[in-house]
Amino acid sequence: MQTKRKKHSKFKNGGMLFELLTRQITSDILAGRDESFTKNLLFKYFNESTELGKEVQLYNFVVNQSLKNLKSADRLLDIIVQTRSKLNEQELHRQKYNLIKEIKERYEIDEFLKNKIPNYRLYASIYKLFENTVSKTIKFEVKELVEAKDCVVESLTKEKPISKEEMDLYSSQSVDVKLMAYKFLIENFNKKYSNLLPKQKNLLKEYINNSSNTSKFKDFINSELESVIKEINELSEKVECDVIKIKLNETTNQLENKKVKKSVKDSDLNALMNAYELVEELNLVNKESN
Predict the structure, then answer these.
(1) Co-location of 124 and 159 in the same domain
(2) Which of 95, 78, 81, 68 has its CA nearest to residue 14?
(3) In-domain check, residue 111
(4) Is the separation of the CB atoms in 218 and 264 below 8 Å?
(5) Pairwise CA distance, residues 191 & 180, whole Å
(6) How many domains does the structure of the chain reveal?
(7) pLDDT digit of tens for each residue in the chain (290 aa)?
(8) C-beta separation of 77 from 126 below 8 A
């Protein structure tokens, strides 16, 4: 008799809870909301002295580590899983329960869970291997566990975009250090992007929340491009200088070519960010001339 395949829960996955909270902070900043509540939750529940913080450290190590061969990946995975089994399971469940309770007090939970996690499959696979180790009952089919291990081993042996030295340094850092680094990141983000236009902030928010959902994000970008092209064309009719009109026409043609067919590129985002600024400038010029 086969074990019924269970749906993965983000609430039970410590690694995903950490990722969801960090992304929520960024979303709050872009939306002009106070992010201090969520930052406090991160520092309260994910410091290196908590069981939840220790678990997330293991998730981060697996997600960010890069090894040369399958043998090394298997050996590392065994050590990680064994280390996970030594955590205080009762205390870990209590901390997750309290964290989720506090999240629900501030956020609409369905909206909170909409934040996308690019490595969702990897986090879910790690969770299954962890749960299979600590659970006294059979929760997953053998096939499901084999798929989970294959996913994790594939990630461990996959070349990461940064150097191994940088990866080893990142992987060795405690959750406390990572949280402190994130704090500085937020502060710098606030300084750098304090003057962004509302539409530019919304674009960044959509990128953070939906970049892993290729189809949805592509549709959003194309819709925004159509909208901004229409605005520029309407504003161009009010411009008296023929040279500027020609330049604006060239701009809209370039934006037409930026419409996404397969996947969104950085150049597409930059073009849209610049287009928002152009529309803002044209609106200001028209107001001054009236």
Answers:
(1) yes
(2) 95
(3) yes
(4) yes
(5) 17
(6) 2
(7) 444 455 556 778 999 999 888 888 777 766 667 778 888 898 899 988 899 999 998 998 888 888 888 888 899 999 999 999 999 999 999 999 999 999 998 888 887 877 777 788 999 999 999 999 888 888 889 999 999 999 999 989 886 554 444 444 344 455 555 555 555 555 555 555 567 778 887 787 777 666 555 677 788 888 888 998 888 888 888 777 777 778 788 888 888 877 777 777 777 788 888 888 888 888 877 776 65
(8) no
CA-CA distance, 222 to 61, in Å (whole number)? 37
Q: One-letter amino acid identity for 226?
A: E
Which residue, 192, 211, 234, sits at the end of a domain? Answer: 192
| Cβ atoms within 10 Å, residue 210 | 19
250: in domain: yes
Q: CA-to-CA distance for 212 and 206, rounded, in angstroms?
A: 10
Do 149 and 73 contact (CB within 8 A), yes or no? Answer: no
Q: Which of 159, 193, 148 is nearest to 67 (CA)?
A: 159
Which region, left, alpha or beta, applies to residue 124 given φ > 0 means left and ψ of -120 to 50 means alpha?
A: alpha
Residues 93, 205 share a domain? no
Amino acid making up residue 179: L
Domain range enclosing 263: 198-289
Q: Which of 192, 219, 250 is the last residue of a domain?
A: 192
The verdict on 112 and 28 lying in the same domain is yes
The answer on 216 and 125 residing in a single domain is: no
Same domain, 46 and 180: yes
Separation CA 12–CA 9 (nearest Å): 6
User: What is the full DSSP assignment across 79-142?
Assistant: HHHHHHHTS-HHHHHHHHHHHHHHHHHHS-HHHHTTS--TTHHHHHHHHHHHHHHH-SS--S-H
Residues 142 and 116 in one domain: yes
